[in-house]
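Moderator note: this is an archived Q&A kept for reference. The question asked for a predicted structure of one protein chain; the sequence and the answer are reproduced below.
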Amino acid sequence: MTTTREQLLEAALQLFAEKGFWGVSLSQVAECCSITKQSLLHHFGSKEKLYREVLGRIAGQLLGVVQQATAAVDQPEAQLVAVLEGLDSGEREMEQGLRVIMRELLDIGERAATARSWPMMSFLDGLDSILAGSLAWRESSRAERLAVVYQCLGAVNYKVMSRTTLQGMYGKTAYGAFEAAHRLQLRNTVRWLLDPVGINARGR
């Protein structure tokens, strides 16, 4: 049975995905679960604490994708592909989580100066570890690897964020063809990025 706390977190995830941190009030979250604002505060204390817990749950889910990929396959290339395809799974909760992250990156503003923790850091560190284990990037700097990570995440996130819009523009059949082509190109990009011979030829 789902607890009230779980219901609140699910409602908050959906609202933060739709409106971002600044666009959501505690009253809206409470109303979604048919409880009072005071009851919500009993569970989380403040909007900031609720938001941090939502971010923490998202980070845990993303880190779980990394851990599952690294446990399932040995090669860094296959691991990175598995992570990226896991993010693009089409699951509603995953998509909402990615939307919250994108809004957080855009909206954090002055809150960054007072942030006490960075929930997404463990996820990024997991991807960094995958790259560090590859022949192409094992002697590179953390900054160089993070740049590669962001290239890959950007390709997936932009596509996930555009799913509904592209389906509306071109129809579901055309979008299905695009999705298959995008997945193939993503795999080719990862193969190119992690090719030790190619990286030496291209230079860093």
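Archived answer notes: Residues 6 and 97 are 15 Å apart (CA to CA).
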